[in-house]
Write a structure and sequence with these properties.
The chain is an alpha+beta fold and 231 residues long. 29% of the residues lie in helices and 33% in strands. Its main location: secreted.
Length: 231
C-alpha cells in the first residue's frame, strides 16, 4: 500500500515541475470602475516575446517605442496609438484599441492578414502593463508584451515577464528586450538564434507598417541567420 502511494507521488512529480506554483497567479486582470482611467496616458515599451518567428524578428529591430492610450466616446473602448523607432525609422499604428468590460480588459489589433487579441494580465504594480496575446495566422501563436510608465523597469517587473513567459511555454531565447541591438551584447549573444532561421517561410508584411526599407532589412537578417546555421 505504501509502495503504491510512493509510486503514485513519483508519477506526479513531472506534472508538478511542469506547472510552477507562480503560474496559478497569472490570470487576466478583473477591471473595476477605475481601470479605464488608469490605462490612459503613455506606456513605454520594455520587452516582448513571441512564438511567431516573423514577429520575434520584428521585435529585434525596435530601438524604443511607446503606447499612447486615449479615451473614446464609447466608454468601454480606449484608443491606442503605437509609436515605434526601428532602424532610424519612426512608425505609427492606430489599428489597436483596449476594450474594457466587466470581466476583463482586451487588446484588439487588426493588421493586414493578422488578427491579434490580447488580455491584460494581473501584475504586481499599476505602473506596468503585462499583455498576453494570441495571434491568428495559419495557426494560433502566443506572445507577451511588457510596458511600463517609466524607464528603466525594475528587476521585479522583468522577473514577472520571465515568469509569465515560462508559464506560456516561451523560452528565454524568445524574449526580446528593447533596444535589442544593445541588450544582446550585454547578454553575450553573438549570433542570431536558430528561431530566426524559419522566418523566410513567412512572407507577410511587417506588422508595424508597410515599409520597404525595414522589409529589406528583415530579409537580410533572415539570410544571415540561415548562413550562420549552415556554418
Amino acid at each position: 500500500m505504501v509502495l503504491g502511494c510512493i509510486v503514485a507521488v513519483l508519477n506526479l512529480l513531472p506534472l508538478l515541475r511542469a506547472n510552477p506554483l507562480h503560474c496559478d497567479f497569472q490570470v487576466p486582470q478583473i477591471p473595476d470602475n477605475t481601470t479605464g482611467s488608469k490605462l490612459l496616458g503613455k506606456w513605454f515599451y520594455v520587452a516582448g516575446a513571441s512564438q511567431f518567428p516573423r514577429h520575434w524578428l520584428e521585435m529585434t529591430l525596435i530601438d524604443n517605442g511607446y503606447l499612447q492610450v486615449d479615451p473614446n466616446e464609447q466608454g468601454q473602448e480606449l484608443f491606442i496609438s503605437q509609436h515605434v523607432s526601428a532602424m532610424d525609422e519612426c512608425l505609427t499604428s492606430n489599428s489597436t484599441y483596449f476594450e474594457v468590460t466587466v470581466d476583463h480588459v482586451t487588446l484588439i489589433k487588426n493588421v493586414q492578414n493578422r488578427h491579434t487579441v490580447g488580455k491584460l494580465m494581473n501584475s504586481s504594480s499599476e505602473d506596468i502593463l503585462l499583455i498576453q496575446i494570441e495571434m491568428q495566422k495559419e495557426k494560433n501563436y502566443t506572445g507577451l508584451y511588457l510596458y511600463a510608465r517609466k524607464q528603466p523597469p525594475s528587476k521585479v517587473h522583468l522577473n514577472e515577464l520571465r515568469n509569465h513567459a515560462e508559464c506560456l511555454g516561451l523560452s528565454e531565447d524568445q524574449i526580446v528586450y528593447a533596444p535589442w541591438k544593445k541588450v544582446k551584447f550585454s547578454l553575450g549573444i553573438r549570433k542570431s538564434h536558430c528561431l530566426v532561421c524559419s522566418v523566410l517561410r513567412h512572407q507577410d508584411t511587417l506588422q508595424l507598417g508597410e515599409n520597404k526599407r525595414l522589409q529589406s532589412i528583415l530579409l537580410k537578417m533572415s539570410q544571415i541567420a540561415v548562413h550562420h546555421q549552415r556554418v
